[in-house]
Amino acid sequence: MKNTHRCPKCGGFDIIYIKGFSGAYGSGNNIPVGFTIFSAVKVDRYVCGNCGYSEEWINKEDLPALRKKYTSV
Description:
Layout: E1 15-18, E2 30-31, E3 41-42, E4 44-48, E5 54-57, H1 63-69
Antiparallel strand pairs: 1-4, 2-3, 4-5
């Protein structure tokens, strides 16, 4: 959905973009990687306005911080 601007489930083109953010007390679309809100990795969401299917994406620049904090499976 991020790259194609099309829903992979229903084929719809009504894609809603929700920008990741970090709010007070850890609220928002984010993953904590440090002790402060400023170190949180933001998670962008893409939602199909037709069927409700959603995807979450993290910027490539933030992947090293996630690898450092969390382990791979």
